[in-house]
Design a protein that fits this description.
Blueprint: H1 2-26, H2 30-45, H3 52-71, H4 75-94, H5 101-117, H6 121-138, H7 142-161, H8 165-180, H9 190-207, H10 211-232, H11 235-254, H12 258-272, H13 276-289, H14 294-299, H15 304-321
Helix pairs in contact: 1-2, 1-3, 2-3, 3-4, 4-5, 5-6, 5-7, 6-7, 7-8, 7-9, 8-9, 9-10, 9-11, 10-11, 11-12, 12-13, 13-15
Length: 323
């Protein structure tokens, strides 16, 4: 009885420390939050009986510590704490009654994301594959689909980083399919991650000799990026949209869609204005077209005369920058 009472006191203290830590995080007092959560981890480490409640609280404590470390760009500490959270979740799952599939999958998504961002592709592939398997086991549901989308995105990015272009493209196609089925309502993460997925997928397709599909996918990415910019007005979303349209120019040119490439280029020019880098990109585009045969240009919807006229227009606009 004494042992049980002591454990209840430990659990009560831990929950209070977690609550205090969460409040500190909400006020952006990350050092104070970390101190409270570390104290909670010490209390849990002293528990003589490892109950389900102890393991559940360990998951929460170490996951929160990992998130704080991520916010301060301490990836090593973040990974260390995510592994501790995952170990507690795996122990709880082994007991049979508490599979905690969502918790384990979410932790693995975060681990995979860190590995993908830091170029540790083999670890990222392993973590992300485990996450996908857990979410597949969970079945359907918007939260499951969202987290599986992230897991597939990280997996695909790591596969591309490992040189597996076809495997990465296949994974990213599945991620895009999951992402398209999600609603933005109440979840601001859907559109931004889908733009990233489509952008990476288009690049992989272009590198595997599929420029037509790359052009189509990149076009979808830019439409979504433009919608994000229209909704937010942020410079970051604008830059993402402009870079996406420049990618469309490249893929359309590769696919022989010269008129579509020009349309995308002028969309960039209209928004960016007479930016020297944009004008230089346009000059390179038109110079490359002028090396094509008349037949090729006609087939691509941009006759030589139009290419020369557009090139002269860019030269005139560039000349005004030097006056």
């Amino acid at each position: 009885m004494l042992k049980d009472n002591w454990l209840e006191k430990q659990l009560k203290t831990t929950r209070e420390l977690i609550s205090d830590g969460a409040a500190a995080v909400g006020e952006n007092r990350l050092v104070d939050a970390e101190d409270k959560l570390r104290e909670a981890s010490v209390v849990l480490a002293s528990a003589l009986t490892i109950t389900d409640d102890v393991l559940t609280l360990r998951i929460t404590v170490f996951r929160e510590l990992a998130m704080i470390a991520t916010r301060t760009s301490d990836t090593a500490t973040a990974l260390q704490n995510y592994r501790k959270a995952l170990d507690a979740a795996d122990q709880l799952a082994q007991r049979g009654e508490h599979p905690v599939l969502m918790e384990r999958g979410t932790i693995l998504v975060n681990v995979g994301g860190i590995h993908a961002a830091t170029g540790r592709v083999e670890e990222g592939i392993e973590s992300s594959k485990r996450a996908v398997e857990l979410f597949d086991e969970l079945g359907e549901g918007p939260n499951v689909a969202l987290m599986r989308t992230f897991a597939l995105y990280h997996l695909g990015a790591c596969q591309l980083g490992d040189g597996d272009l076809e495997g990465g493209a296949t994974t990213l196609r599945r991620a895009a399919e999951d992402g398209r089925g999600l609603s933005d309502d109440g979840n601001p993460d859907v559109s931004p991650i889908l733009v990233e997925i489509l952008t990476h997928l288009a690049r992989a397709l272009a590198n595997t000799g599929e420029p037509e599909e790359a052009w189509s996918i990149a076009g979808e990415a830019t439409e979504r990026a433009l919608a994000l910019y229209d909704a937010s007005g942020s410079d970051e979303n604008l830059a993402q949209y402009l870079q996406g349209e420049l990618d469309v120019v490249s893929y359309a040119e590769m696919a022989g869609r010269f008129d579509d490439a020009e349309d995308s280029f002028f969309k960039v020019l209209d928004l960016a204005g007479d930016n020297p880098d944009v004008l230089n990109r346009g000059m390179k585009f038109y110079d490359a077209l002028l090396t094509r045969t008349d037949e090729e240009l006609e087939a691509g919807g941009l006759p030589r005369e139009e290419v020369e006229d557009s090139r002269r227009e860019l030269m005139a606009r560039a000349a005004t920058l030097t006056l």
